[in-house]
Amino acid sequence: MERAAINAPLQGSAADIIKRAMIMMPDALKSTKLKARMLLQVHDELIFEVPGSELEVTEKVVKKTMESAGNLSVPLICDTGSGVNWDEAH
């Protein structure tokens, strides 16, 4: 039971952070005039459709937005990946 007692608050916090990132994302993409579209969330990942010409800039905007979504006393690190499908990007 000890593990469950510790894990539940962490998973709840992670869910809150990803929700906050999802709320912040449309404005972040709009403010940089990117055509990327957020398609879905899978656990702690956000999936986007991005024009190839905007990939590098979009990755930077998404990373910055996701890392700033949590108000933590430690750094929140976000990794990005890209590909023609989720398996390739993962």
Defining traits:
90 residues, alpha+beta, Alpha-Beta Plaits, 12% strand, globular
Produce the secondary structure layout.
Blueprint: H1 2-31, E1 37-42, E2 45-49, H2 55-67, H3 86-89
Helix pairs in contact: 1-2
Q: If you had to describe this structure to a student in words, what would you say it looks like?
A:
This protein has helices at residues 2-31, 55-67, 86-89; strands at residues 37-42, 45-49. The protein is an alpha+beta fold and 90 residues long. The protein has a two-stranded antiparallel ribbon. A hairpin with a 2-residue loop joins strand 1 (37-42) and strand 2. Helix 1 crosses helix 2. The longest helix is centred in the N-terminal third of the chain and has 30 residues, at 2-31. The protein starts with a helix and ends with a helix.
